[in-house]
Design brief:
- This protein has ten helices and five strands; from the N terminus they run ββααβααβααβαααα.
- Strands 3-2-1-4-5 form a five-stranded mixed beta sheet, sandwiched between helices.
- The chain is an alpha/beta fold.
- Helix content is about 55%, strand content about 15%.
């Protein structure tokens, strides 16, 4: 029987608005070339339209897949006593345990890839840890089609979540990252309108903290001027 290979990757790790999405894709060991021929590559190198096209094709072609989302509020709550690296590793371990491949390839979240491998092995149940070979590499989403496929599913899931949030709030959010001017404008409008952020914003992020501080400073300045 052909061995099963799992690829796992995330989207939204550095975002200040919206969820962090993690996807895992499972294929038979010799099937990665099929993903390559399909045009699967690192999601960052594909247009939104092309990612959307590949999303359904990947889901139909692979042996199995799973996607999970960690909300902004969950991230804020858990980061009170955990690093983002650990939060992400815990969810990756959950996906590996659920899908039970023979080999799991992870796009490492830090330069010291051995640390990522060791953390995942520690988090896995003993039985699973014995049966699954863990491979953690930087730029795995560029080097392994199965990880590229996971990066596409994660990215499409996150993009759709942000679009759904825009429709719900009736506001343009942008891509949700601190570097996007539209996202910063959205955060500033939210503070001006409500005086606080919604549960969809990662308040523990520097960008959110800075906007809150600037708002407080502005309110204090107004008070002093009136005094």
């Amino acid at each position: 029987m052909s061995k099963l290979v799992l690829g796992v990757d995330e989207a939204g790790r550095g975002a200040v608005v919206g969820p962090l999405c993690i996807a895992a894709v499972v294929v038979e060991e010799g099937s990665q070339k099929g993903l390559d021929r399909m045009g699967v590559k690192d999601s960052k190198k594909l247009s939104m339209e092309r990612r959307d096209e590949l999303d359904e094709k990947i889901k139909d072609a692979v042996e199995d897949f799973a996607i999970l989302s960690i909300s902004a509020k969950e991230i804020d709550d858990e980061m009170a006593n955990k690093s983002l690296n650990l939060i992400e590793a815990e969810r990756m371990a959950d996906l590996i345990e659920a899908l039970r491949p023979d080999r799991a390839i992870v796009d490492a979240t830090e330069a010291k890839t051995e640390n990522v491998k060791r953390t995942l092995e520690t988090l896995l149940d003993d039985e699973v840890e014995e049966d699954v070979e863990i491979v953690a590499e930087n730029r795995a989403d560029e080097n392994y089609p199965v990880v590229s496929a996971a990066s596409i599913l994660a990215k499409v899931t996150r993009d759709r979540a942000v679009k759904a949030l825009e429709r719900k709030l009736g506001e343009e959010i942008g891509n949700g990252y601190p570097s996007d001017g539209r996202t910063k404008d959205f955060l500033e409008r939210m503070i001006d309108k409500n005086g606080e952020f919604s549960e969809h914003v990662r308040e523990s992020w520097v960008t959110a903290e800075r906007i809150l501080d600037e708002k407080k400073q502005g309110d204090l300045s107004d008070f002093c001027d009136k005094g």
